Hints:
Layout lengths: L6 E4 L3 E4 L16 E4 L5 E3 L6 E4 L11
Parallel strand pairs: 1-5
Antiparallel strand pairs: 2-3, 4-5
Amino acid sequence: MITPPETVRTNTARVACDGASDIRGGAALGHPRVWLQIDEKGYVECGYCDRRYVLIGGPADVPEAA
């Protein structure tokens, strides 16, 4: 079974991703830091790690299934 990429909800339309922001030691274990802009779809995906950033209250912000 393939696990879906991580989804991060954010309240800003511009986000930075380094693939390891939640890991102590950070970028040494991730990828180069990139800045991503959420557009009218309400989300953006990182081209390196496929992490999806969803704008809170935007069109892609849907409740997770329980």
